[in-house]
Structure to design on (258 residues):
């Protein structure tokens, strides 16, 4: 039997008197899966993600990565949040290189090559020497993604990373992220409120109930719309059908009838 890659084993979480994850939450995420967590505000998605990152501990239960309990944050698990705080006194390339500061296995030249490779991947080669306050919010988000990839994280934990972007940049980054995830074979947990974004990006969507969070639905997106996410797919009948059914599930989670 193969070892599960990332496994939530009977997790519960309480903050004081507040039950955030309950009943015990269990989920297995295979290697290289693009997983999207979708659910009402405040239901506990971020808390679950922070647990994978090692920033929060479960009240009961365990999260295991390849059979080993998750502990302190390390560079295997990289986090990208909605608002990225870059260092204004470092260039774009230096900000990306900063993600590799603990990679003592890499020489200075290798770090530089890697930084350039990932900047190219996110389409920012021409801005390597720019300073963060001279580029747009969307570009800064790409810097954050490049930095996390350059660090060599095999799991990307992304908490509404595109939330603050305008629709056009958001769509562009969705396309790029999906491409990078497939090319680099990353495992991603991506939190969003946006159903369209969820369906476009995900191999699989977990829809959460209101707090305390439990799984309302586990949707195999790839089985329904395939692996190849061309932009045109968003207008296809199968995409629209799935989007509408996910929307209904999310509305049901909020307790409204329509
Ligand atoms: N450190 C903490 N101490 C006390 N309560 C907390 C703490 N962290 C989170 N909570 C509470 O736990 C609940 C779940 O929060 P969480 O951020 O995980 O939700 P979420 O589903 O990610 O919400 P959103 O989509 O709005 O970001 C919220 O009610 C929040 O106020």
């Amino acid at each position: 039997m193969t070892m599960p890659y990332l496994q939530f084993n009977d997790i519960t979480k309480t903050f004081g008197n507040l039950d955030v994850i309950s009943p015990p939450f269990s989920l297995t995420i295979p290697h290289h899966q693009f997983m999207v967590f979708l659910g009402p505000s405040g239901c506990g998605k971020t808390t679950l993600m922070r647990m994978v990152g090692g920033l929060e501990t479960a009240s009961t239960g365990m999260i295991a990565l390849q059979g080993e309990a998750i502990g302190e944050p390390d560079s295997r698990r990289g986090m990208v949040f909605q608002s990225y705080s870059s260092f204004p006194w470092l260039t774009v390339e230096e900000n990306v290189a900063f993600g590799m500061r603990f990679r003592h296995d890499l020489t200075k030249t290798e770090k530089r090559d890697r930084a350039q490779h990932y900047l190219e991947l996110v389409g920012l080669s021409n801005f390597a020497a720019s300073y963060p306050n001279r580029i747009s919010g969307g570009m800064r988000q790409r810097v954050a993604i490049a930095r996390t990839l350059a660090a060599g994280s095999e799991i990307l934990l992304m908490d509404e990373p595109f939330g603050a972007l305008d629709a056009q940049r958001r769509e562009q980054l969705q396309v790029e992220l999906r491409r990078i995830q497939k090319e680099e074979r990353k495992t991603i947990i991506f939190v969003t409120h946006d159903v369209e974004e969820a369906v476009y990006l995900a191999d699989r969507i977990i829809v959460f109930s209101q707090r305390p969070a439990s799984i309302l639905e586990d949707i195999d997106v790839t089985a329904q719309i395939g692996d190849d996410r061309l932009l045109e797919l968003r207008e296809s009948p199968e995409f629209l059908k799935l989007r509408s059914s996910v929307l209904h599930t999310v509305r049901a989670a909020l307790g409204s009838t329509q």
About this structure: The pocket of adenosine-5'-triphosphate is lined by residues 15, 18, 20, 39, 41-47, 211 (CB under 6 Å).
